[in-house]
Amino acid sequence: MIRNYLKAGYPALCLLTQEPHRAEQVIRCEGWRFVAWDCVRGIRDLEGGVVIDDIRDPVEAIRWLDAAPDAILMAHNLHLFFEIPEVVQAIQNGVNRWKSIGSALLMISPSVRIPQELEKFFHLIDLPLPDTAAMLDIQREITGDLDIATNETTARLARGLTEFEAETAFAYALVKKGTFAPSVISDVKGQMIRKSGLMQFWEPAAIEDVGGLSALKDFIQRRAVAFTENGAAFPRPKGILLVGIPGTGKSLASKATASILGWPLIRLDLGALKNSLVGESERRMRQATRVIDAFGHAVIWMDEVEKAFAGTRSSGKSDGGTTAGMFGHFLTWMAETTASILVMATANDISKLPPEFMRAGRFDATFFVDLPCPDERRQIIEIMNRKWGSDIPLAYTDRLNGYTGAEIEQLAKDSLYDGLDDAFRNMVPLSRSMKEEVNGLREWARTRARIANTPEDRGVQRKIRREEVA
Asked: Which residues are the signal sequence here (predicted)?
């Protein structure tokens, strides 16, 4: 992995990984002497694991390399000492010397934390996580002489875990299930989301709780084949944008998509990723997308994206370019990620979204979620009666023309306290209170988006009798 860099005489490398122990095993190559340093054990020879110099001080460890030709010093957690000026100076003093004697400083770090004084000296390298073959090897090592077959499905599912995480997950699966059960691995991978602190697991909604929207449901169900083993020939959808009137079921449909695909549902709150420290918001966004890539097989739900990305082009004046930086990374990630994920984004006010977000190819489809048609209103009434124990008669279908699903649900809840007639009389739907905005959104969607709703029944056509001509 690093052999060509060493042959080219790179004096300072930074290996980005959260697996320091695995790095010591897989990074070595012939032609150089590999030693490791940390502030507890000192300098160890990786060939035999013996401590060869009891140097705990980072400055002294760096200077040790000056007199070690053709040696690679793997420095663990050296980035934690960059606040010490002598450490920075020791590296600056050493790079020319190391280059002349064929040696290199290899810093092992989980993230990029290189001070400005040193960033031009270091070359960044990512240590890939274990692949499927490596996961199968871990399973074989755990089972040993036991008569337990390896499981390639579980090995693929475990991708994204570190070697240590995979080993403990496989062992736990054997203890709990007696086999390499995929369900246990999924639970363990859920820890990635919880530990990141950047996203949340949400319970997927049952598809039966979504009234109508048959066009959207059919679109998702037809494309679900692309995520199966038999769907390699199909292009995988990356994302769906749901635009519409507030309360029409966009968020509920996003949550139900996870049920259709049988995947976990992860909510990515872009507003919560923002931080007052310079560069921290962009770092948190990059970290969140890395966790999603490693997790794989998930529906990523982003609610009301226009609030997070509104005013992107002018963000340099208001927030130092933070929003623009997050926005740019998100768009690049959506285009480039190879993970099995589907982004479900919702928006109420389409005018606040930047043009780049809406261009063709960014999302696989943009759906407009309109006010429910009569058949959808009947379904929603039945769902709400079942959910809340209310008793709204189906005859109310016509009286609820212009009401959103959320308003029908509120009517069901209010009727339990005030009675149906009073609850209905006291409710003013958005289609009346914000008539101009609703009509404007409908006009926008007429030629710019697919319609998510169930096609409206046009009713029985009039029968025309024609007199026969004698």
From this structure: none
